[in-house]
Design brief:
Elements (H helix, E strand, L loop, with lengths): L8 H24 L11 H4 L6 H28 L3 H23 L5 H5 L7 H26 L3 H26 L5 H24 L5
Helix pairs in contact: 1-3, 1-8, 3-4, 3-8, 4-6, 6-7, 7-8
Amino acid sequence: MQQKWWQQRFVWLAGIFGGVVIVLMPLLGGLFWRLFQPIAYPREVLFARDAPMQAGFMGVNLLGNVLILLIFGALFLLVQYHREAKLMVAVRGATIGWAVWGVFAVIWPPTSMASVISADQTITVRALVSLIIVMLLAVSFYQIGLQYGRLDHPALNNVWRLAALLMILFSILRLGVQAMGLPLIGVIDQLFAISSVLAPIYTAVYIVRDIQA
């Protein structure tokens, strides 16, 4: 029987590549824009309307998000194939959440670089909306972990729940670090980015091992 698109190894590998692109975004920023400081600045500086090469950085980030969505789409169809209804609901929620997050980054970039790195943090509407999206996405991740636990997949259970908790932790910690004016926002932001792609990448690797070449 011919394999469906979501059963193809290259689909999952493409998603893994998307996660790597997202994680390496600060490095790319430092390579192509020498004034960018990955430790002190969050990646959102690269997407601000007045940032040099804003369109290029935005395009690379969008590519990474779309490739990660391949993992979510393929995972949803795989779960549907195995008729795991509760896991389907959780994966659907994460897929929608990731898509909304990606669209949000495109249609509502920071107005300026200064607004991103400013320590004057009366929390903006944009920051609040972003935090809400992240929290809902993290809840979906946690639900996926719980469902994998129910299906006796302890490794997937642990990685999805851990990712959810770390996403929430680093989102809140970033606001605190920025409010205190500490030059470590970029580090916290990078830890958040790693946390956000950790579970999808791990799951893709887990599934690729079982797919015949």
